[in-house]
Amino acid sequence: MISRKQHIAIFTTASLPWMTGTAVNPLFRAAYLAKYGDYEVVLVIPWLSLKDQELVYPNKITFNSPLEHEEYVRRWLEDRIAFALRFSISFYPAKFSQDKRSILPVGDITASILDDDADVAVLEEPEHLTWFHHGQKWKSKFRQVIGIVHTNYLEYVKREKHGQLLAFFLKYANSWVTRIYCHKIIRLSGATQDLPRSIICNVHGSNPKFLEIGKRKQEQRQRGDQCFTKGAYYIGKMVWSKGYRELLKLLSEHQEKLSDLQVDLYGTGEDSDQVQQSARKLNMDVRVYPGRDHADILFHDYKVFLNPSTTDVVCTTTAEALAMGKIVVCADHVSNDFFKQFPNCHTYSGNNEFVKITLKALSEEPVPLTDEQRYELSWEAATKRFLAAVELNQKISDKVPSSLKSKTQKLQRSIEEASAFLHQTMSGIETARCAFGAIPKTLQPDEQQCEELGLVLNRKENVSQTLML
């Protein structure tokens, strides 16, 4: 008898062309799992109606249909990997929350997957995907539910008005929803809050293009050519919380010692104008430019990547800079623990040390990456770490019969079921949803979303299953 392949559904909270980690990393994960594992993989991404697309996607890029959006995503990925894409793409209805700057699901997104295919669900940002979930329980629908925590939400919330109080409640909300909906949680680094049944493992890799750039730089060096002709730079979404505040503060406090330093900042975001104004006040050469693709040839000749951010969980651009063979100067922070194994990662623990390490980095050449170090940065290695962390290589087994469970297990299961029932009840009440931050009228998709996604709207119940594209 031929055993069927495991089905893996990867749900994420963002999609290209929004160049955010939760759009890019799950996309690569789907491609590499489908390539290297004996799995049927589907990537489930949010579909936004035109009005929300215009708020989220850069350069006025919009899509008239999910099929058009899928074609864009596939083209982008095909330009960056050298193998055939063997995964499928499905969409769930979503809306954009302007105050949270986040995409939130609409309706029961578990319906995107047929019951017969509901083996494994990977929730990229599990807390985000379950805060307002109302529908079939994730653990009831799927045999295994794995959460991957991308974002240090507590750190972001602390920077808002009444931040400490908000962070206190959010901490317990995150623990609650992940406990009742996930079997296992992967925290990319210790920068995230400790969650039930969680382990720390970086299961992200670098876009192969960056590793190729690094190889070419190494070949240049072997020929005796000068590899890096530019100094220091930083790239990231241009919002204060992404490290710009910390970097400009460091430069401002040490302008005399760093007077010969030129720093180029690249990014686009809500705080772009303020960042430019702050940079102009400095008595040193700090230039601000619009955001670009980090793989752009413009960045190839920079030698030092400055990244003082401590809000990232594992910074994608830091990994990319290391893959390109650059020196990275970053904070001695738990979010950078994975990068400390690489000789070109230089960490600092104080302002004076930042100056010392930055000047030293500018005066020396990067250490060439070994094959082993290059592999550790790759998506091949990240996929291997992911499979080991969640033990997907094991065969799917039926649920343990209740007669074999201990009294403690039975009690724990009963408590979780009661807790899930409470969450389901609260998330089904419109006033309660809105009070806790949900977008109004998102219990089920509206008529426009149903038409765009090929859903059938039942006003008395919820929406029927999504048509796979």
Provide a descriptive summary of the structure in words.
- Residues 232-333 form the Glycosyl transferase family domain.
- GO terms for molecular function: digalactosyldiacylglycerol synthase activity.
- One of its GO terms (cellular component) is chloroplast outer membrane.
- It is found in: Plastid, Chloroplast outer membrane.
- It catalyses: a 1,2-diacyl-3-O-(beta-D-galactosyl)-sn-glycerol + UDP-alpha-D-galactose = a 1,2-diacyl-3-O-[alpha-D-galactosyl-(1->6)-beta-D-galactosyl]-sn-glycerol + UDP + H(+).
- It is a single chain.
- With 469 residues, this protein is an alpha/beta fold.
- It is 38% helix and 17% strand.
- It contains 17 helices and 14 strands.
- Strands 4-3-2-1-5-6-7-8 form an eight-stranded mixed β-sheet. Strands 11-10-9-12-13-14 form a six-stranded parallel β-sheet, with helices on both faces.
- α1 (21-36) links the parallel β1 and β2 (39-47).
- α7 (163-181) crosses α15.
- The longest helix is centred in the last third of the chain and has 21 residues, at 407-427.
- The radius of gyration is 23 Å and the shape is globular.
- It starts with 5 loop residues before the first strand and ends in a 16-residue tail after the last helix.
- The relative contact order is 0.13.
- The model is unreliable at 395-401 and 459-469 (pLDDT under 50).
